[in-house]
Design brief:
The structure holds 2 protein chains of 2 kinds. By secondary structure, chain A is α/β, with parallel strands linked by helices. In chain A, about 35% of the residues lie in helices and about 20% in strands. Chain A has helices at about 35-45, 70-80, 95-105, 110-125, 140-150, 170-185; strands at about 5-10, 15-25, 30, 55-60, 80, 155-160, 190-195, 210. In chain A, α6 (about 170-185) links the parallel β6 and β7 (about 190-195). The chains are: A alpha/beta, B mainly alpha.
Chain lengths: ~220, ~260
């Protein structure tokens, strides 16, 4: 099985000191970090939005630190991130946020985008309005839309940044079910849950658990 | 002292180079957006035109009418009755050449420049720009380019409105206050209102629009990490825009004088 993500002695900012881990391709993994800021930094490093001070990173066979802008863009289109706050654009309505990547890259005709968008929202159990602004949604609602948007682009690698904390039991179960079902849907898809709260992924049926707590500088 | 002055000049040249790069970079990004489908980008462009152009229409109209009135009143009070042709000429020289592009740009800076800088700062601080980038949507194509062209088109159209409103408003005041006939007023206006005159005025307004948007986007995207940096970014964007507007206007006037 090829490596989907490989961090080799990565030192970055003041948050990460010599972090090394590997996520094999096709598995559902959870990485427990020391704090939430670390998750955000790791996402930025994986997508080439931040550069490490030292060490090497490989994501889906690409080195985001040395990749050209074009290659980096291509990599980002193969990876989806579900942020803890949903990662929605505040001045776009829910529907605009949802279909933004599909419309931007004109991946499907408008009718099909609408159909796929509605299906994704139903799948995550989103029940609020389509024309709502993200600021009017609950945390769960924002995460549902963020998850639906990530599912729409059919990624090879999906990273969940702290999406199970701060939710009620039912909300957490519903999201966990959707995450697990989406992971199984495409053979070879890699899913990585980043969390600073170990408890939140305890019930998640992950195949690999990675503890990154010790490698942090400020522990 | 000389070294410090040289440093400042170098910094200004670097700054202008950055702005030029941002504006010129918007053109290939426009082609990229068109190639990729462009619907969401076009929607950002239309929103910008709506907020900068349509929503500023009333204030532009009122300002233009008042400016037309003030200019006509001043000319008549200086030149006295019987100066109808001169009145028409002066309003073209003052309004079309100078005031319309400049005042429209100042109003746009005050209304939309602050809004652009504050909005982008807020997006940057809350991580929304990173979210966009993580979707493979570059900020330069989705956020900056449509704003640059949106503001430029809005300033261009608003300048035309301003010129028409000031010239017609000026005539209204002249005809009501001093019984100036349309024929004589129009004769004065059209004797100096050449295509070249209009082209310079509109070119100036497009340049102003491009510069305002580029400065405000740049300030918004270069904001610090704290929310308290947002008003600072907006203030700096306004001050730098105003400074460059006057600089460009002065350069234009000097160029055509020589």
């Amino acid at each position: 099985m090829e490596q989907a993500i490989n961090f080799d002695k990565v030192v970055a900012d003041e948050l990460l000191e010599e972090v090394s881990f590997t996520v094999p391709g096709g598995c559902l993994a959870a990485a427990v970090t020391a704090r939430q800021e670390e998750n955000a930094l790791q996402v930025r490093l994986m997508l080439g939005m931040a550069k490490p001070v030292s060490g090497g990173i490989t994501v889906l066979g690409e080195d985001p630190c040395t990749a050209s802008a074009k290659a980096l863009n291509a990599l980002r289109r193969r990876v989806a991130v579900v942020y803890s706050g949903g990662g929605l654009i505040s001045n776009l309505k829910v529907w605009e946020n949802l279909v933004l990547p599909l419309e931007y890259y004109a991946l499907y005709p408008p009718g099909e985008i609408e159909e796929r968008g509605m299906r994704a929202l139903q799948r995550v159990g989103y029940a609020a309005g389509l024309m709502e602004l993200p600021g009017h949604l609950s945390l769960h609602g924002r995460r549902q839309v963020g998850l639906a948007r990530a599912m729409l682009v059919d990624p090879q690698l999906i990273i969940y940044d702290e999406i199970l904390t701060g939710l009620s039991g039912d909300e957490r179960s519903s999201i966990m079910e959707t995450v697990a079902a989406f992971h199984r849907e495409m053979p070879g898809r890699t899913s990585l849950l980043l969390t600073a709260n170990e408890e939140s992924v305890r019930e998640m049926p992950v195949e690999i658990r990675i503890a990154l707590k010790r490698s942090s500088m400020h522990d | 002292m000389l070294a410090s002055l040289a440093d400042r000049v170098t910094a200004l040249i670097d700054y202008l180079y950055d702005l030029g790069e941002m504006i010129l970079g918007a053109f290939p990004n426009c082609l990229t957006a068109i190639r990729q489908g462009a619907r969401p980008v076009f929607s950002v462009y239309l929103r910008q035109v709506y907020f900068t152009g349509l929503e500023a229409f009333k204030i532009i109209l009122v300002t233009a009418l008042l400016i037309g009135t003030v200019v006509i009143t001043q000319i008549v009070s200086i030149a006295g009755a019987g100066s109808e042709t001169l009145t028409g000429k002066v309003i073209v020289w003052i309004v079309v050449r100078e005031l319309a592009p400049l005042l429209t740009a100042i109003i746009v800076v005050a209304r939309s420049g602050t809004a652009i800088a504050a909005e982008l700062s807020q997006m940057k601080i809350s991580g929304e720009i990173d979210c966009l980038e993580s979707l493979g949507i570059p900020a330069a194509t989705y956020l900056i380019m449509p704003r640059i062209f949106g503001v430029a088109s809005a300033v261009l159209v608003l300048t035309i409105y301003f010129e028409v409103a000031a010239v017609l408003g000026g005539f209204l005041v002249a005809s009501l206050g001093w019984l100036v006939p349309w024929e004589q007023y129009a004769q004065g206006v059209f004797s100096v209102l050449t295509i070249f005159e209009l082209a310079v005025s509109l070119a100036k307004s497009i340049l102003f629009g491009l510069v305002i948007a580029a400065i405000c986007c740049r300030k918004g995207l270069n904001v610090g990490k704290s929310v308290t940096n947002i008003p600072q970014a907006a203030t700096k964007a306004v001050m730098q825009s105003l400074f460059l507007l006057f600089l460009i206007d002065g350069a234009f006037s000097l160029f055509f004088l020589l």
